[in-house]
């Protein structure tokens, strides 16, 4: 039992949820490593939503609301730690929710779809086809789902599929704490924030924005600027912490 007053309560609860989901087969063992990489970058951000991330989240809401056929792509890690948040985002935007996995088995797909359904999401399921130009199993998707989408939200993605989807002409919104990853660099819009903070902010913005707000946010989208701001936030924090250490103060 993790005490609620533990300074790292949220992080420890999330780890526990992921470990539990891995034991049940929802999360691949490799997914635990990917989470660890995310945590390291979150530490550098100060485990908070920055101003530039908030702007990216509002722009993501604008893109989803303005889309003809928006889709939210869900993998094991996302379902394990944010199923309820994904269901709320689907309600706010009307996007399809579709499962897409790197470590793909029919059994895992079913487990993740059940988890999402139990959390209140309406999952777009059914037979998938190998439709994306990729040699691994993330190529599998549904013709009327991700394949037909114009805007796709891809939380916790690998770079290959992000690049392939952008090459197909789709607008790709990534959530990735690592501003240096291939995903972050290739996406049309990258939200450098932790998944469980980012998704509720996109939902909140989706409930607030009108058509003019959406058009304004989309017209000002500059992903290079957003990534540069995220890197700047991390370096500023690192510099500040090393300055404190040099003067003998504790951070
Ligand atoms: P790429 O192929 O894009 O260069 P990668 O090889 O790191 O990246 P993965 O191993 O699939 O790709 O890792 C997924 C990414 O998700 C990592 O970059 C990690 O920083 C990020 N990540 C993990 N957990 C979270 C989280 N809870 N919130 C936001 N980002 C996360």
Notable characteristics:
single chain; 251 residues; alpha/beta; Rossmann fold; two-stranded antiparallel ribbon; 10 helices; 7 strands; globular; binds adenosine-5'-triphosphate
Give a structural overview:
The protein has 251 residues and is α/β, with parallel strands linked by helices. It has one domain (51-235): Rossmann fold, CATH 3.40.50.12640. The protein has helices spanning 9-24, 29-45, 51-66, 76-93, 106-118, 159-167, 182-186, 195-208, 211-219, 223-246; strands spanning 70-74, 96-99, 129-130, 140-141, 151-155, 171-175, 189-191. Strands 2-1-5-6-7 form a five-stranded parallel sheet, sandwiched between helices. A two-stranded antiparallel sheet has the order 3-4. Helix 1 (9-24) packs across helix 4, helix 3 packs across helix 9 and helix 4 packs parallel to helix 8. The model has no long low-confidence stretch (mean pLDDT 93). The structure holds adenosine-5'-triphosphate. Residues 34-35, 37-38, 41, 156, 158-159, 175-178, 181-183, 194-195 line the site of adenosine-5'-triphosphate (ATP).
Helix content percent band:
55-70%
Distance between the termini: 28 Å
Rg over C-alpha atoms, rounded to the nearest angstrom: 18 Å
Q: How many domains is the backbone divided into?
A: 1
Count of discrete alpha- or pi-helical segments spanning 4 or more residues: 10
By CATH, the architecture is named 3-Layer(aba) Sandwich
Structural class by SSE content: alpha/beta
Query: Which regions have little confidence, pLDDT < 50, spanning 5+ residues?
Result: none
N to C succession of SSEs: HHHEHEHEEEHEHEHHH
Biggest sheet: strands, sense, closure? Answer: 5 strands, parallel
- Roughly what is the average pLDDT, rounded to an integer? 93
Spatially, the strands of the biggest sheet line up as: 2-1-5-6-7
State the CATH superfamily name: Phosphopantoate/pantothenate synthetase
């Amino acid at each position: 039992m993790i005490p609620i007053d533990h300074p790292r309560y949220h992080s420890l609860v999330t780890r526990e949820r992921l470990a539990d989901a891995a034991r049940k087969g929802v999360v691949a063992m490799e997914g635990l490593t990917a989470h660890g990489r995310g945590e390291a970058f979150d530490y550098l951000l100060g485990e908070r939503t920055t101003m530039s991330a908030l702007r990216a989240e509002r722009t993501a809401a604008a893109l989803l609301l303005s889309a003809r056929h928006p889709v939210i792509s869900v993998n094991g890690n996302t379902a394990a730690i944010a199923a309820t948040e994904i269901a709320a985002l689907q309600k706010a935007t009307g996007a399809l929710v579709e499962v897409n996995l790197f470590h793909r088995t029919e059994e895992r797909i079913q487990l993740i779809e059940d988890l999402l359904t139990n959390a209140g999401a309406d999952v777009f399921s059914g037979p998938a086809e190998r439709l994306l130009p990729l040699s691994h199993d993330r190529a599998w998707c549904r013709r009327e789902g991700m394949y037909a989408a114009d805007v796709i939200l891809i939380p916790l993605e690998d770079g290959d599929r992000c690049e392939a989807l952008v090459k197909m002409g789709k607008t790709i919104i990534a959530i990735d704490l690592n501003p240096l990853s291939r995903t972050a660099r290739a996406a049309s819009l990258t939200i450098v924030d932790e998944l469980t903070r980012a998704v509720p902010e996109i939902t909140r913005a989706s409930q607030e924005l009108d058509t003019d707000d959406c058009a304004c946010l989309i017209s000002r989208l500059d992903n290079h600027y957003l990534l540069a701001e995220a890197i700047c936030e991390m370096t500023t924090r690192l510099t500040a912490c090393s300055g404190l250490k040099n003067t003998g103060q504790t951070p």
